[in-house]
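TASK: fixed-backbone design
INPUT:
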């Protein structure tokens, strides 16, 4: 087991990619704190239409330990509480996966300023908050892995103004934090997923989904477990000398010029 008895927080882990990461961590022996707005998994229009089992229940069915902490990652007090509850329950914190993210489609002309602020709060500001409260515990544990989930949209547009901007910013935030904490053996890395089958795709039209299918080089879309396996690698001893890096996991979506 690559993460035996490691203690991990995964944000946005009730649904989609975060759930996939939490379950792969559990299979590798980690104790996983599921941080999300609600415990029930989200049911999507296209994907996870029948999902009902909360992530912690699924973790326990795998023989591992889990804890749900209701958290809005955009709120400072709730992120502080998340870290405190994790350490109170499991005695330490070693891995943080900043996965919670939202996309509000629109254009610069039509999008309300409040929507821009909301996307940036969840997709970017929250990563500063988890770093602020988690890093002291990672140092104390003498083992630290921070993993941010960005997107292939770190590299280009087409997803609306705040989403692409926030995902590019996450890549550089990780590099900056990596410089802060590297001397203590803590790594900070980014995973940039391509099209993954989750409820976040509800805003897309069937024609847009077909276009993404054409662009994905591999013969299937990604699944949450594909990102989960990459996260296990970055969270494990195998990746101890990788930091400030971004790993594109996209089935070839951005391989073509
Ligand atoms: P998802 O299916 O919508 O799941 C996201 C989860 O995060 C949901 O459970 C959601 O809760 C939760 N969440 C939203 N806002 C939150 C907040 N303020 N505090 C705590 N939890 C919050 O999305 P996903 O596809 O798994 O996406 C996960 C991450 O991967 C995001 O950062 C996304 O940008 C990134 N990503 C996804 C894809 C893809 O193709 N799926 C591609 C590239 C990058 P509610 O359901 O209650 O809103």
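OUTPUT:
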């Amino acid at each position: 087991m690559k993460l035996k008895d490691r203690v991990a927080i995964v944000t946005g882990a009730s649904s989609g990619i975060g759930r996939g990461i939490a379950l792969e961590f559990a299979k590798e022996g980690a104790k996983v704190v599921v941080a999300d707005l609600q415990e029930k998994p989200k049911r999507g229009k296209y994907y996870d239409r029948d999902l009902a089992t909360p992530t912690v229940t699924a973790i326990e069915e795998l023989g591992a330990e889990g804890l749900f902490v209701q958290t809005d990652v955009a709120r400072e007090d709730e992120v502080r509480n998340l870290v405190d509850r994790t350490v109170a329950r499991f005695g330490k914190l070693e891995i943080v996966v900043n996965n919670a993210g939202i996309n509000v489609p629109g254009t610069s002309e039509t999008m309300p300023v409040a929507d821009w602020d909301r996307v940036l709060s969840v997709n970017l500001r929250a990563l500063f908050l988890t770093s602020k409260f988690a890093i002291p515990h990672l140092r104390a544990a003498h083992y630290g892995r921070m993993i941010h989930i960005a997107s292939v949209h770190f590299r280009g547009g087409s997803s609306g103004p705040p989403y692409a901007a926030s995902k590019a910013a996450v890549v550089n935030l990780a590099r900056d934090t990596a410089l802060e904490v590297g001397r203590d053996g803590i790594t900070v890395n980014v995973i940039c997923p391509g099209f993954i089958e989750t409820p976040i795709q509800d805003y897309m039209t069937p024609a847009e989904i077909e276009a993404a299918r054409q662009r994905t080089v591999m013969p299937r879309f990604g699944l949450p477990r594909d990102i989960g396996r990459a996260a296990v690698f970055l969270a494990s001893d195998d990746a101890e000398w990788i930091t400030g890096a971004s790993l594109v996991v996209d089935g070839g979506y951005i391989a073509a010029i």
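COMMENT: The longest strand covers residues 186-193.
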